[in-house]
Each structure stands twice: as C-alpha cells, then as structure tokens.
Write a structure and sequence with these properties.
The chain is mainly beta. It has one domain. Helices cover 13% and strands 37% of the residues. The protein has helices at 17-28, 115-118, 154-166, 201-207; strands at 7-11, 32-41, 62-67, 85-86, 95-96, 99-103, 110-114, 127-132, 139-148, 172-181, 183-188, 209-214, 217-224, 235-240, 247-252, 259-266, 269-273. The longest helix has 13 residues, at 154-166. It is globular.
Length: 285
C-alpha cells in the first residue's frame, strides 16, 4: 500500500469475559432459538476445520482498520482477502495462509484460491479490517447459536448487543466462527473495478456479484460496538471453505436449520491507519 499518512491509536474497553458472555447470550437469545455463550479454551485452530497457521486467537489482541470504502467508491483509487497471516519473526519467515475469491471467467461462479498459490507476499489494497494477536491458546468467548428467529446476522446481533449494553464505551471483538449447517449469502467483487461512479448503495449492490454458499464455512470477523469518531467500518466478515466457496459474509439464508459455532476475544487496542480524508457511508454493508 502506498503512502500511509497517519496511524491513530485508541484504547478499547475490555470487559470481564464472564460478564461479556452473559451480555452476548442475552442478546443472541432474542435472535436465535438455541444459544449458549461461555468462557472456554480456544481450540487448536491449526486443526480441522480451520487449518489456520496459529493455534489460537489469544495474546495481546488488537484491531486494525486500514483505509476504507471511500478508496473504492465512487471510483477506485489504485494508489491506495480473507487474511490468515503469521507474521515474520526471528528465525521464522511469514506464513500467508490467506484465501481470495474472484469470479471464474469460464462459468461466472465463485473461484476461491489460496493466496500463496498465486502470490508470494502479504500485501492488500484499499481497505482491511484485521484482528491481530500472538496466536496463542487461552480463554476465549465460545458462542453456539442455532436456528435464527430474528432479522440480524450473527455478527450484527452480537455487535448491536454490545452497543446497547456498553453505550458510550467502545469495545471490539475479533475471532472466527463456523457455519456448521446451512447456507449463507456472500458477495465477491468483479475482477474489473467499475469504470462508472458508484454513487449509492444500490449502485454498489448491482455491481457486486452475490452467491449462496454451503456449509461448512469458516469466517473471520471484526466487530466494533460503536465508532468513537475514527470513521470505522463497525463490522466486517470474510470467509472461506475447503470446498471452493468464499467471500464477504452478509448472513445465513437458512434460518430454520443454521448452526453457528464461534470463538471470539475482546481487543485491547484499536489502530486506525490511513483514514480517508473524504468519507461517506455508501457500500458499508
């Protein structure tokens, strides 16, 4: 990414994990028929179905919001994933386990590929919402939610619950969840950026390609209870599968049968990098 002009740092509210479990379970019960939220040991994320390059999501958890949608909309600024990266350390190279999805030019369907099969770096452009940690095992928030009865997605319900309960205190969660049963709505951007200005959310929606994809699906998510004035994307979720489907998550499309299992941790700090000087709220769903 060219010219990162500014990094802003924000101290987040970090509640007690037991307290947060009670808050989230209460909120999720309004949106799902079967809910259990508890403090648990993070499973070994190098194992199935995750296959992450690290064992856990614990150790100095941070949230980073880089760039933003205004660098893409109304027209892309080219000077400005589904990331699973173990960063470089002494005696160890970086490991990029990321995936990316595009539109298959042959049949117009979703084409998911491993980033390392095509590229040999850890770059991205325009925007990213990232959860970073030391990749250690530890205690996390375990969420099981089945059979959606409300209108909100799992992520939106959790975020709105935190916003309502914690009010002016800004807190954020990062982590991973699996749709074990059911299907989900996703989008993938076309291979070519739009040459016509995308001035409304409807313009953006018409430009994107939408798909219904099937479980099991593994997602990475970042959610912030409220924007403290940093022009944040308050929730953003991407996911992949081991059967070739992946993209930007909206919600499940099979509310009567869907089953979610997730592991999350509140972040301690938020870093806002390269905040757009001119902004808008188009295309942030």
């Amino acid at each position: 990414m060219a010219n990162i002009s500014k990094t802003e740092k924000f101290q987040l509210h970090v509640p007690n994990l037991e307290e947060l479990c009670q808050v989230l379970e209460s909120g999720l019960n309004k949106n799902f028929s079967d809910v259990k939220v508890s403090v648990a040991d993070c499973p070994d994320l190098t194992q199935e179905p995750f296959r992450f390059p690290v064992k856990g999501i614990c150790g100095k958890p941070r949230i980073t919001d880089v760039g933003g949608v205004p660098y893409l909309i109304p027209l892309v600024q080219l000077d400005k994933l589904m990331p699973l990266v173990l960063t470089e350390a002494e005696g160890r190279p970086a490991v990029n386990g990321s995936y990316f999805s595009s539109i298959n030019p042959v049949d117009g369907k979703c084409l998911q590929e491993k980033y390392s099969d095509r590229f040999h770096d850890c770059d991205f452009g325009l925007l990213a919402n990232l959860y970073a940690c030391e990749g250690k095992p530890g205690k996390v928030i375990k969420v099981r939610a089945c059979r959606r009865t409300g209108e909100d997605s799992l992520v939106s319900c959790m975020r709105k619950t935190m916003e309502e309960h914690y009010g002016e205190k800004t807190m954020a969660l990062g982590g991973t969840f699996v749709i074990q049963k059911g299907k989900a709505k996703i989008h993938i951007m076309p291979r070519e950026f739009s040459t016509c200005p995308l001035n409304t959310s409807k313009d953006v929606d018409n430009w994107l390609r939408h798909f219904e994809v099937s479980a099991p699906l593994i997602f990475q998510t970042v959610m912030v209870s409220r924007d403290p004035g940093l022009d944040l994307r308050v929730e953003h979720t991407h996911g992949f599968s081991h059967h070739g489907e992946g993209g930007h998550y909206y919600t499940d499309t099979t509310p009567n049968t869907v089953e979610y299992l997730g592991y999350f941790l509140p972040a301690e700090l938020l870093y806002r990098i390269d905040r757009p000087t001119e902004t808008h709220n188009v295309g942030r769903d």
